[in-house]
Each structure stands twice: as structure tokens, then as C-alpha cells.
Amino acid sequence: MSKVKTLGQFIIEKQDDFPYSKGELSRLLRDIGIAAKIINREVNKAGLADILGETGDNNVQGEQVKKLDVFSNEQFIAALTAGGEVCAIASEENEELIPVANEQSKNAKYVVAFDPLDGSSNIDANVSVGSIFAVYRRTTLSGPGTLEDFLQRGTELVAAGYVIYGSSTMMVYSTGKGVNGFTLDPSIGEFCLSHPDMKIPKSGKTYSINEGYYVHFPDGVKKFIKWCQEEDKSTNRPYSSRYIGSAVADIHRNLLYGGVFIYPTTSQAPNGKLRLLYECNPLSFIVEQAGGKASDGYRRILEVEPKSLHQRTPFFIGSSEIVEKAEEFMKKYSVVEAKN
Ligand code: AHG
Ligand code: MN
Ligand code: MN
């Protein structure tokens, strides 16, 4: 039998990468792994249990909340609160951040921002969904965490990752030393190392964007889409169009095969749709660690200065050569003043 390495074993081995850490980050990643397994269990039996459909509420973003959004949010909050490594939590589903005030956690080193269920509008149709997390070191000195601890650039991330609940369930994460992917083996209930040292191809032949909104896109994006559709042997064009509508799933596929994912500004969403702190920053950290690029069309996502918890940003992410090409079109045809 080949030797299987579980997520738990891998995390312990990698603890030596952080000689000054007392193992808090390792425990925090383990807690996230546990929340992911519980969410996976519910997602997988979603059609059987009474957990499909909407709760009837809207969230901070004005979007319909699914029962599984609420469930996943509760699992993350419970795991991170009980773990004792996090002094505050921020979630897509909570307007305000959640300070963690219990004795064990209030002076903890880290804060975590997350999207508990990404692509949740897909869930009733059995399409892949995900969870995304971002771990920062607090900047305040003690007590429960505050907004200040979250308003850090993505360049300051300590760790980030996502879980994809797809044809198999995977956790992909980075602590800034490359990217590793773990597939859940349901027969033993463990994430096992299946994709060591993941690298995104420099180029690819897939573009992922909701083309239904074409008329509302900036000129740079319209021209870039047309470029993707042109015939050119040397760059393997025309590219294929693939859009699942779950950012985690679209970006995971492009990470494996190469390609670009774009959620630009539209006339209805002038700042884009996706959220900087718990969607774009962690996904950018992973893709950069795998050798790719992430941009808002003009500059690196990880260098954008966050001003608020639920800030949105236009998002271009994937293979370096294709993201650079999209940026070229933006700079040529959609000149705007950088906002931050
Ligand atoms: P969430 O389910 O967390 O609200 O995120 C959904 C996001 C993202 O996953 C996806 O890429 C995008 O919304 C799809 O939006 P459109 O339906 O506008 O294309
Ligand atoms: Mn999302
Ligand atoms: Mn979500």
C-alpha cells in the first residue's frame, strides 16, 4: 500500500517552517479542516435532509440566504471560537465582525475572514460549491480583535485556502510556501495529500466570465473576450469558455488546467461583485503562490488597501500570461483612475 499523508500529519511536519510559532497556526488550520468535513457531510446529503432552499432572509450583500449558508457559517464560527487561536472572525454572512471574547481566545494572535459557502445559488442543482478562508496576524496588541486587524493588505496574509465540495471534496491551502491540495477520503474521514506543490500553467485555453452581462462590461473586457475568441495557432486560440458560477470551482479548474477567471465591474455592479477580504485576497494568495497572477484590471489585488469588511473589487485571476493580456486590454481601452 502506498503511504498516505493526512492533512494532520502534513501540518505537523510543516510546523518547522515557522520556528517562532508555538503551533497556533497549525491548530487553526486543523480546526478549519474539521469545519470543512462537517460542511462536506451536510452538502453531500443536501437532497435528503431538509437543508436545501432559502431561509427567507437576505444577507449584508442583499443576497438570498440559503439554509446551507447559515449552517456552514455556524460551523466555521463554532470551530474557530472553540479552537482558541482566533481573537476575531469576519464572515460574508455577518455584517459586523465577531470579536472572540472568551478567556482562551481573547489574546490569540490571529483573525480569520471567510466565505462559508461560495456559489451557494448552485447548491440545489448539485453543482460544486466551496468555502474560502483568509488568516491574518492581528495588528492590535491584546483583547478581542477589532476592524483594524482585518483591514490589512493581502500581502500580509499568513495563510489562505479554499475547500471545494465537488465530484470529490478537496482542501487547498498555502502558508506562503507553495500550495498543497488534499482530497477527502470519505472511507477514513481524512483529507489526504493528493496534489503536492501545485503550479498553475503559465498559459491555458479557458476563459471564465459571465458573458450574459456582456453589454454591461467595460470596453477593455469586451475587447479581451473578442481576443479570446479569435483564431491564432501560436497562442492556442480560440479559447474555450467555461463558467460554473462558483468562483472556487472555476478558479480551481483554471489552477489545474490554466486559464483566466474574470468578474469585472458592470454597469449594475460598479465595484464588481466579489469581496476583497474573504474571496479575492485568499484566492489571489493561492494562485500567486502557485505561480499565477491576480489583478483588479490595473494592479495586484494583494496590494489593494482595504477600507471596509465587505469591500468589493473587480477580479482578474489565473495564468500569468493571460491575466497580463487582460490587463493590457484594460489599460488600453478602460482607463480609469485607480480608486485606492
Ligand atoms: P456567494 O455564493 O458566496 O455569494 O458567491 C457567489 C459568487 C461567485 O462564487 C461566483 O463566481 C459569482 O458569485 C457568480 O455571480 P453571477 O451569477 O453574477 O455570475
Ligand atoms: Mn462567495
Ligand atoms: Mn458565500
Report on this structure.
The protein folds into two domains: 7-195, Fructose-1,6-Bisphosphatase, subunit A, domain 1 (Fructose-1,6-Bisphosphatase, Chain A, domain 1), CATH 3.30.540; 206-339, D-Maltodextrin-Binding Protein, domain 2. The protein is an alpha+beta fold and 340 residues long. The termini are far apart. The chain has eight helices and 15 strands. The protein binds 2,5-anhydro-1,6-di-O-phosphono-D-glucitol (AHG) and manganese (II) ion (MN) (2 copies). Residues 69, 92, 115, 117-118, 120 line the site of one manganese (II) ion.
**How far from one another are the termini?**
54 Å
Helix content: 25-40%
Shape: globular
Category by helix and strand content: alpha+beta
Name given to the CATH architecture of the largest domain = 2-Layer Sandwich
Q: Identify the bound ligands.
A: 2,5-anhydro-1,6-di-O-phosphono-D-glucitol, manganese (II) ion
User: What order do the SSEs take from the amino end to the carboxyl end, as H and E?
Assistant: HHEEHEEEEHEEEEEHEHEHEEH
The CATH superfamily of the largest domain is known as Fructose-1,6-Bisphosphatase, subunit A, domain 1
Mean pLDDT: 93
The proportion of strand residues reads: 15-25%
Parts with pLDDT < 50 across at least 5 consecutive residues:
none
Number of E-type strands:
15
